[in-house]
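Help needed: design a sequence for this.
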C-alpha cells in the first residue's frame, strides 16, 4: 500500500455552509432525483407510505436517464438466460462485483423490463412484435432492448414522467438541490435540507421533515473535464450521504466510455456519446492508418468490455500522439443510420461529420460511476432511513467495470426492491438534532480547475505520482476563500469532496482492475487487492477501511 496514509487524521466539514432553513414542510418519504431510479421508486411507493415528495435539481428530465442511448439489458431473447447475463456481468466487473447483487439484477431484470413495457415504454419491435434486441461490449448475446433506435433513455423518461403525471399523489419539486440530511438523536434520517429556486412558499433554503430519504440523484461525471454526463451530475447525493456518515464504496471505479465524439482539444463539459450499439451493429474502430486495432486485443474485438476498448484507444493515442482514434460506420448506410441511430446521426451532422461518408473521431471520456453510497441488497445505506439506488449507489452489481446497459436495469431493479421493504420499516418521525460540526464551502469559481486536475491526475490512466500531485492540487483549491454561498459553491464543494475520496481510493488501489488503470501497477492483484475501499465520516473525522473479499469472477458460482 502507498506509504502516504489516507487522510483519516484530518477533519472534514460535516455540512455545507448554507442559510438556516427559512421554511419547513413534511413528507413521509423524499425521493431525491427524477431519472429511472427515482421515478420508479416514487411510483412504487405511492399509496404505501403516505406523502411521497420527489425533489430534483433541475427539471424532471434533465438527468442522465434522458441521455441513455444503447438501451437496457435483460435476458429476454431466445437462447438467452439470466445465468449468461450473470456471467457477462461478473466478467466485465473484473472480480469486484457482489455476486448476490448480480444474481438479483439478472433474475429480476426481465420482469422489471416487462413492467416498464406495461407502464407504457415503447421499445423497438421486430415486425412480428417481438422485442428488437441488440448487443454491446462484453455481452455474448443480443440482450439490449432499445427505443426510438438510439433514444432509449428519452423514451423511458417520457413514459415514467407520464406515469407520474397520472399519479396525483406524487408531489414533485423541481429546481431543488439537496443540501444536507438532517439526523435524529438515534443517527437515523429525520429530514433533508433543500435549496429551492422557486417562488412563493418554498423558495430558498428550507427543510423537509421526513421518515425516509431515497437517494436517486445520479453520478459524478462533472468531476472530469470531458464526460457524457449532463451538467447536473455533480456527485451531490454521494456528498450528502458522506457528510451524514454513510459509507461510500468503490469510488475509484469510474468508467470511461471508449467512443465519445471528439470535438477538438478545447471542448469541455458534456460530450456526445456514440453508443456502443453502433459497434454492436457492425461499426469498428480504426487508427490513423485505417488499421482495425481491436482485432487480436480481445476475443470480442470491437465489442470487448468497455475498459478494454478504452485502454486500447488511450494506449494508441499516447503512442502516436494523436488526440483521438476513429470509428468507421460508413458501411451501415444512410437508411440504416436514419432508422437505427437517428439521434447520433443528427448529433454527428451538427458537428460537421456525416457518418455515412466520414469516419467519426472518438476518444474516451468519463461515463459512469460504478461506486457510490454502499447499499445492501435492498438499497439500504448504513444510515437508518437512508436508501440509495441507481448511479448514486454502490449496490455491488458493477464491480470494477459496469457491463453495457446494466445501469438503467440497476435503477429499475433496486428501486423496486427498496419499495418492497421501505413501507415495512418506515421510521417514526424524529426531531432533527442540531449539527455542531463545522460547515464547509469551496469557491464555485474553481470548478474548471478541479475538473482539469482530476482529468490529468485521476483520469483514464493513473499513477501514484500523478494522484499525489492531484490530491495536493485539490487541497490548494479547497483553501481558496468561497466568494458566494449558493448553488455553484455547493456543487463545487460536493465535487471536491468526492474528487478527493476518488483520488485517495485510486492511490490506495495499487493494481489495474477493470476501469481502474495504474501505469505503475499494470497487473490485477487478487491476492492483495481483492475487496473494497470504504470511506465514511465519524463526526468530522474521515475514516477509511479496506474490506477484503474473494474475487467475484473466479468463484464456482459463475455459471459456465
Ligand atoms: C452506450 O450506449 O454505449 C452506453 C450504454 C451504457 O452506458 O450502458
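Sure. Designed sequence:
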Amino acid at each position: 500500500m502507498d506509504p502516504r496514509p489516507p487522510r483519516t487524521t484530518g477533519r472534514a466539514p460535516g455540512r455545507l455552509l448554507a442559510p438556516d432553513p427559512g421554511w419547513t414542510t413534511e413528507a413521509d418519504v423524499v425521493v431525491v432525483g427524477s431519472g429511472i431510479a427515482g421515478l420508479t421508486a416514487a411510483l412504487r411507493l405511492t399509496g404505501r407510505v403516505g406523502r411521497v415528495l420527489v425533489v430534483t435539481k433541475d427539471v424532471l428530465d434533465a438527468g442522465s436517464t434522458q441521455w441513455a442511448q444503447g438501451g437496457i439489458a435483460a435476458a429476454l431473447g431466445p437462447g438467452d438466460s439470466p445465468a449468461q447475463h450473470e456471467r457477462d456481468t461478473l466478467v466485465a466487473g473484473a472480480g469486484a462485483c457482489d455476486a448476490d447483487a448480480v444474481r438479483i439484477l439478472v433474475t429480476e431484470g426481465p420482469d422489471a423490463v416487462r413492467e416498464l413495457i406495461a407502464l407504457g415504454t415503447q421499445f423497438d419491435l421486430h415486425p412480428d412484435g417481438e422485442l428488437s434486441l441488440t448487443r454491446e461490449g462484453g455481452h455474448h448475446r443480443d440482450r439490449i432492448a432499445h427505443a426510438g433506435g438510439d433514444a432509449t433513455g428519452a423514451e423511458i423518461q417520457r413514459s415514467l414522467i407520464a406515469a407520474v403525471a397520472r399519479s396525483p399523489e406524487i408531489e414533485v419539486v423541481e429546481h431543488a438541490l439537496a443540501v444536507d440530511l438532517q439526523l435524529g438523536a438515534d443517527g437515523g434520517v429525520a429530514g433533508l435540507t433543500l435549496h429551492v429556486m422557486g417562488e412563493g412558499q418554498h423558495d430558498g433554503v428550507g427543510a423537509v421533515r421526513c421518515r425516509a430519504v431515497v437517494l436517486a440523484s445520479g453520478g459524478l461525471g462533472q468531476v472530469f473535464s470531458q464526460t457524457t454526463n449532463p451538467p447536473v451530475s455533480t456527485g451531490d447525493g454521494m456528498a450528502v450521504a458522506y457528510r451524514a456518515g454513510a459509507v461510500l464504496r468503490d469510488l475509484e471505479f469510474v468508467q470511461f466510455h471508449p467512443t465519445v465524439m471528439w470535438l477538438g482539444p478545447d471542448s469541455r463539459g458534456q460530450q456526445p456519446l456514440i453508443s456502443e450499439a453502433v459497434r454492436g451493429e457492425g461499426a469498428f474502430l480504426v487508427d490513423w492508418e485505417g488499421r482495425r486495432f481491436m482485432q487480436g486485443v480481445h476475443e470480442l474485438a470491437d465489442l470487448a468490455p468497455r475498459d478494454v476498448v478504452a485502454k486500447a484507444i488511450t494506449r494508441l493515442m499516447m503512442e502516436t500522439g494523436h488526440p483521438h482514434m476513429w470509428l468507421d460506420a460508413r458501411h451501415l448506410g444512410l437508411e440504416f443510420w436514419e432508422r437505427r441511430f437517428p439521434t447520433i446521426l443528427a448529433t454527428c451532422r451538427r458537428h460537421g461529420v456525416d457518418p455515412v461518408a466520414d469516419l467519426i473521431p472518438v476518444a474516451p471520456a468519463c461515463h459512469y460511476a460504478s461506486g457510490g453510497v454502499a447499499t445492501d441488497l435492498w438499497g439500504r445505506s448504513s444510515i437508518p432511513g437512508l436508501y440509495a439506488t441507481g448511479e448514486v449507489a454502490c449496490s455491488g452489481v458493477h464491480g470494477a467495470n459496469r457491463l453495457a446497459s446494466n445501469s438503467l436495469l440497476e435503477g429499475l431493479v433496486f428501486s423496486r426492491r427498496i419499495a418492497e421493504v421501505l413501507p415495512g420499516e418506515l421510521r417514526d418521525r424524529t426531531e432533527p438534532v442540531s449539527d455542531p460540526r463545522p460547515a464547509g464551502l469551496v469557491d464555485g469559481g474553481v470548478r474548471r480547475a478541479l475538473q482539469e486536475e482530476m482529468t490529468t491526475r485521476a483520469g483514464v490512466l493513473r499513477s501514484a505520482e500523478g494522484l499525489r500531485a492531484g490530491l495536493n492540487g485539490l487541497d490548494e483549491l479547497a483553501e481558496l476563500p468561497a466568494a458566494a454561498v449558493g448553488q455553484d459553491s455547493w456543487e463545487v464543494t460536493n465535487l471536491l469532496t468526492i474528487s478527493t475520496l476518488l483520488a485517495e481510493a485510486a492511490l490506495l488501489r495499487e493494481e489495474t482492475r477493470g476501469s481502474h488503470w495504474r501505469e505503475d501497477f499494470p497487473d490485477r492483484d487478487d491476492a492483495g487487492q481483492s475487496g473494497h475501499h470504504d470511506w465514511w465520516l465519524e463526526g468530522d473525522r474521515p475514516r477509511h477501511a479496506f474490506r477484503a473479499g474473494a474475487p467475484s469472477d473466479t468463484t464456482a458460482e459463475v455459471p459456465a
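The pocket of succinic acid is lined by residues 69-70, 275-277, 368, 404-405, 407 (CB under 6 Å).
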